[in-house]
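Private note to self, pasted from the team thread so I don't lose it. Backbone tokens:
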């Protein structure tokens, strides 16, 4: 039993790969929008700063979860759909708050 080894093409650029964009800038944007949306739905607490401090503390965990999901997911289309859905669900309240619609 022999297996065929096909080396990666040297002509293809890293920037043309979908997983590069998904695990890089898209994951960062998703994490930033989740962090921004957390300040809207997280309760302020007794001192009134919990809704600002906890998203900052949890940002590395949020980024790591979305990064490892995008890298380890076998089906790249499903990873794109999931991250775009998470991005849109968190971006809508952030944009609405910036426009003043939530006041």
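Design output:
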């Amino acid at each position: 039993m022999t297996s065929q080894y096909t080396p990666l093409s040297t002509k293809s650029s890293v920037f043309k790969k979908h997983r590069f964009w998904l695990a890089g800038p898209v994951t960062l944007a998703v994490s930033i929008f989740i962090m921004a949306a957390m300040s809207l739905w997280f309760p302020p607490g007794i001192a009134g700063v919990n809704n600002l401090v906890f998203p900052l503390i949890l940002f590395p965990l949020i980024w790591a979860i979305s990064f490892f999901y995008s890298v380890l997911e076998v089906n790249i289309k499903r990873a794109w759909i999931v991250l775009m859905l998470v991005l849109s669900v968190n971006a809508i309240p952030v944009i609405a708050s910036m426009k003043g619609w939530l006041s």
